[in-house]
């Protein structure tokens, strides 16, 4: 049995998954955790990582490395997504990550992956627990700076993928700056999302999908809210179904209240409270695009995503 780890560093959060790969190839979760570090803070405006954002990320990653040591992790892979693709001062981030990850596996370092590879890894992880007869699937990974769309079959054949440059942090920082956002800001953000959705429609065969799967923080938080959970419960969220009509009501409510009120709900992470309004606008735009191309009426929510896809890849190479 070998313990391996995956780290995903995005625009808004840094996440860790430690798993045990058993002799028969089965994979068992040991640790799954997340911290909001807002690495992409101000990147849209400056084109660089802010010093305080890099420090928050360093502290979080250092804590993850300590967890890896405690769990006797032998292999690690870290991917860096949207925020890191866009910045000038990447080297500071990579040097920091290499110094920390090297304590677990010699030569390990963070990798900037393309939006397409991000989409493929997310797909591989998200469909792990889904019944094959519900395919083809469209997996939608709504992040802080970008949103990945990938359509594929249960057997792993990818029919189309695209990384759209929109996410909850990007929409909030670029457009929805008032707290709560004004109607004008919501309308401008919705128009921006619609432009991105038209790009998706040209590239990804949305009409081929039978089941639509939402993953990452905006979708999982919306599931927790829709279910009226008193605390964040990954088991209750994973595999849940969110109907489009109910989501329209819920997202409108979220857009209409300030972030400090949102943060009072125990299922909304304090670091997500100020950007889930932007995420809500993105979700509504995604729903409109799906309805133009499909008879689907709901999302299925997956707690599994790019981290699980990374672990599957590491396990295959052991």
Task: Tell me about this structure.
The longest helix is centred in the middle third of the chain and has 21 residues, at 183-203. The model has no long low-confidence stretch (mean pLDDT 91). This protein has 13 helices and 11 strands. It is 44% helix and 21% strand. By secondary structure, the chain is of the alpha/beta class. A hairpin with a 3-residue loop joins strand 1 and strand 2. It is globular, with a radius of gyration of 19 Å.
Number of helices: 13
β-strand amount:
15-25%
Give the ordered list of helices and strands. Answer: EEEHHEHHEHEEEHHEHHEHHHEH
Main sheet characteristics = 6 strands, mixed
Strand order across the biggest sheet? 8-7-6-9-11-10
The end-to-end distance, rounded to whole angstroms, is: 10 Å
Radius of gyration: 19 Å
* Backbone shape: globular
Topology, number of strands: 11
Oligomer state of the chains in this structure: single chain
Estimated structural class: alpha/beta
Helix content: 40-55%
Which whole number gives the mean pLDDT? 91
Unreliable stretches (pLDDT < 50, length at least 5) are none
Protein traits:
318 residues; alpha/beta; six-stranded mixed sheet; five-stranded mixed sheet; 13 helices; 21% strand
Provide a quick synopsis of the model.
Helix content is 44%, strand content 21%.
Architecture blueprint of SSEs:
Layout: E1 2-9, E2 13-21, E3 27-36, H1 43-46, H2 51-70, E4 75-80, H3 82-85, H4 90-101, E5 110-112, H5 115-126, E6 137-142, E7 147-152, E8 158-164, H6 168-174, H7 183-203, E9 211-215, H8 217-226, H9 234-237, E10 241-243, H10 244-255, H11 259-262, H12 276-293, E11 298-302, H13 306-317
Parallel strand pairs: 1-4, 4-5, 6-9, 9-11
Antiparallel strand pairs: 1-2, 2-3, 6-7, 7-8, 10-11
Helix pairs in contact: 2-4, 5-13, 6-12, 7-12, 10-12
């Amino acid at each position: 049995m070998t313990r391996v780890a995956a780290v995903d560093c995005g625009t808004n959060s840094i996440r860790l998954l430690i798993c045990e790969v058993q002799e028969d190839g089965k994979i068992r979760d040991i640790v799954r955790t997340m911290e909001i570090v807002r690495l992409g803070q101000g990147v849209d405006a400056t084109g660089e990582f802010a010093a305080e954002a890099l420090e928050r990320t360093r502290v979080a990653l250092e804590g993850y490395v300590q967890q890896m040591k405690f769990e006797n992790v032998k292999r690690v892979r870290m991917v860096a997504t949207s925020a890191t693709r866009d910045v000038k001062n990447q080297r500071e981030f990579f040097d920091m990550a290499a110094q920390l990850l090297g304590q677990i596996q010699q030569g390990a370092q963070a990798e900037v992956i393309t939006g397409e590879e991000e989409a493929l890894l997310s797909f591989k992880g998200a469909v792990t627990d889904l019944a094959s007869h519900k395919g083809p699937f469209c997996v939608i990974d709504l992040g802080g700076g970008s949103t990945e769309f990938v359509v594929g079959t249960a057997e792993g054949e990818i029919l189309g993928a695209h990384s759209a440059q929109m996410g909850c942090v990007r929409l909030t920082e670029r457009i929805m700056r008032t707290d709560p956002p004004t109607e004008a800001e919501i309308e401008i953000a919705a128009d921006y999302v619609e432009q991105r959705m038209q790009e998706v429609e040209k590239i990804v065969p949305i009409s081929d999908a039978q089941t639509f799967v939402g993953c990452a923080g905006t979708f999982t938080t919306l599931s927790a809210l829709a279910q009226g959970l008193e605390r964040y419960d990954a088991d209750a969220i994973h595999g849940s179904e969110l109907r489009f009509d109910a989501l329209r009501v819920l997202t409108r409510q979220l857009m209409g209240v300030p972030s400090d009120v949102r943060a009072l709900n125990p299922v909304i992470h304090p670091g997500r409270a100020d950007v889930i309004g932007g995420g809500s606008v993105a979700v509504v735009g995604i729903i409109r695009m799906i309805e133009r191309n499909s008879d689907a009426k709901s999302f299925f929510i997956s707690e599994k995503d790019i981290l699980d896809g990374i672990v599957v890849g590491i396990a295959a190479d052991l």
